[in-house]
Structures are given as structure tokens and as C-alpha cells.
Design brief:
With 130 residues, the chain is an alpha+beta fold. 15% of the residues lie in helices and 50% in strands. It is built from 1 helix and 7 strands; from the N terminus they run E-E-E-H-E-E-E-E. A 5-stranded antiparallel beta sheet has the order 1-5-6-7-4, with helices on one face. A two-stranded antiparallel ribbon has the order 2-3. A hairpin with a 3-residue loop joins strand 5 and strand 6. The protein is elongated, with a radius of gyration of 16 Å.
Length: 130
Amino acid sequence: MTAGEGLTVTQRRYVSAAAAHYGGSLVDGAYVLALFGDVATEACIRMDGDEGLFASYSDVQFRAPVLGGDVIETTATVTRVGRRSRDLSFEARVVCRADPERGPSASDMLDEPVVVVTARGTVVVPAPAG
């Protein structure tokens, strides 16, 4: 609708302790892929006025752990616009992390965000009317 290649969308989400499924409050990688789906949906809505559908992921890289109590920022950038497909690059960064040594609800804003997952993906949207 209003934007194309280069459009960047960013969302933030608090990762609750309930999302941690493994020892050490570790959150599974699928959690972040779901966040990438959410930010891709917003990009499709902004570009095409439609939620679109995810077709594929490629080059998914799990670079650092995601923990219960983190605040994650996910970004999608449109890298290619086709007739019905859009390629996006994704990055997820932890911007806040729990600090249980200071107390059960203590948390810190990180001086430098930690990149936890990167990926590329393709979404499809309905053909233009007409």
C-alpha cells in the first residue's frame, strides 16, 4: 500500500517465565520464529493491506540463548518485492534481561542488545486486484 523494499518493522515483547521450557530458564527457538511471523505480518499489512502467509524460512541462525524474563526486540526488513512474494531479513535482539542475583523481579536494560536469532524468509500476499 505505502511502502516497499527497505520497509523496516520492529516490535518488542516480554518473554514470560512460562515460555521457558528447559533448565536455566531457556526458551525454545520456535518462540522467536513465532515473533518473526508477527513482525512479518505487520510488514505485509503495511505494504499490502493483507496479513499475507509465510511461505518459507531460510538461513535461521540461533546465536545466543533466549531466557524467561528477557525483553526481545524483533525486526523485519523487506529486501525484495515481487508480484506476490516479499523477501524479508529478520533479527531478534535481547534488550533487557532478568538479574535474579539482585532479586526475584530485578532486570537490567542491556547497554548493548544481544543478537539471539537471525533469519531470512519469504511471505506471499494475494494478487493485486484488477
